[in-house]
Amino acid sequence: MKFFLICCLWIFSLQAAIAVLPSRVNIDGTWYTNGQTAYIKCDKTNVNVYIDLVVIPGPSFLKISVSPSSNFTVSSTQSDIMKTLNLDPSRQNGWIDVAHVGISGNIRVYIQQKPPTPSISVETNICAGSSRSITATSNYDFQSTHPIQLVWQTYGGVTVNGGSSFTQNGTSSTVTIANVSNGSYSVKAVIPSCGNLESAVVNVKLGPPVITNPNYWLFDPGSNMWQFSQTSGGPGVTYTFYISSGSAILNPQNQDCYITTSSGATICVTGTNSCGTGIPYCFYLPPAGGYLKTVYPNPATNLLSIEFEGDMSSEIVSFDLILYSEKSMEPVKRLVYENPVAMDSFGTNQKLEIDVKNFPRGVYYLHLIPNPNSKLPVQKVRVVLE
């Protein structure tokens, strides 16, 4: 009975030991837990990674397993609980997953040689004709050996300390940002001693909101419902969606919107903040089925006309139009809608024309390929030349 109890206790202890993930990992002499970031000196090419020794019953212990991001490698094992992590030669950031060999589950620590992204003291807007003192800070651990600079840059009608750029040594920099006629400013941390290695850049737009990174795609083909999204323009911004032409049902979701249209519509969105309302961004959504309305005459002899649905403008629609030969399956004609040569007739009567009189007679296939971001299907029409 005593032997049975000892065996049970041994099995329980073994299960308890192998069920526990590494609670922390030491990277280059400092301990980190799951989700933390390890900042490493920019001149290092590799670092030691090790964990606490976890003894299991019997003459053995749990070994370390390190799985890095693709830009890192693990080249050698110095011991069963320590490995050597080779860093990115270009000093790109990455991560490592640390676990025990043969045990599922891991903790992740992020590895960064670039300086931390600066934080700024205020994010409130500065309207045209106003200025404000702004402080940027980068909490860099190696200032004594690899000092950083904070580099400011302005764009449009914005100045920093009266100019377009300003650089200050140290982990903190206070400047005067003036908005003369709207624009933006940026700040980043730079390590001159490591080839001007840069942090991520903080960009701040001033004045009325600008619609940033707009994107729209077909969300539900059955109802021709589209989803529009963008990058939010900061605190205190409200967005207004409206129908410029056609008909649609709008369901705004803050800076995004769900849009349902059966016959096609042009939708516009504006942002408003304490400095006013920004320039509208407008985009065209085709009716159910896509942009293409009809191709005629078919059969054709000299001229092939392609008509489109709705009221589209060259600034808001993007597609390729390709004519393939059935015999060779090679493209014989391609029109990119941004091509200025094709825009005159399109802008006048929503029609493009292809001169086909010199093409060999036979069967062709016309493909209308929408912008991939729209997630619309390719529309295909069989065309006969005679």
TrEMBL record:
Keywords, alphabetical: Signal
Record lineage: Bacteria, Pseudomonadati, Bacteroidota, Cytophagia, Cytophagales
UniProt protein name: T9SS type A sorting domain-containing protein
Record keyword Signal present: yes
Position of the signal peptide: 1-19
Domain of life: Bacteria
